[in-house]
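Working notes for the structural subgroup meeting. M.R. asked for a predicted model of this chain before we commit to crystallization trials. I am recording the input and output together here so anyone reviewing the notebook later can reproduce the run.

Input as submitted:
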Amino acid sequence: MSATEKEKPVSLYKTKWDLKKIQTDSGYTQVKTKAFLQLNEEKQSAGGNGSCNLFGGNFSVDKDKIHFGNLFSTKMYCPDVQPIENLYLHLLSIVDRFTIEGNQLKLYKGVDVQLAFEKKRI
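Returned structure, recorded in token form:
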């Protein structure tokens, strides 16, 4: 890989973002599930896996502002990961800003990081 390729910024779009950390009542917590997020720029659609169920919805971006809406998911119940999935989908609905630093996507509510993702290594 050339130096130019290494420095090329990661796109918000056409990237599979694996959820790595989530803000819980007990603090910023490591996530070890199969939760991920993908954004389709042309359709303004969001989708992924909440940890157990697939989900979808729409989103809008304006500079560093981001909003998710009309989120829906399949309805399987997975006791081991359900609390994380429920919180993940809730936090997606309230975040209002994002940053991309290196291979990390962070979603914020105000100044507080709510969700942290890492670009999936292929």
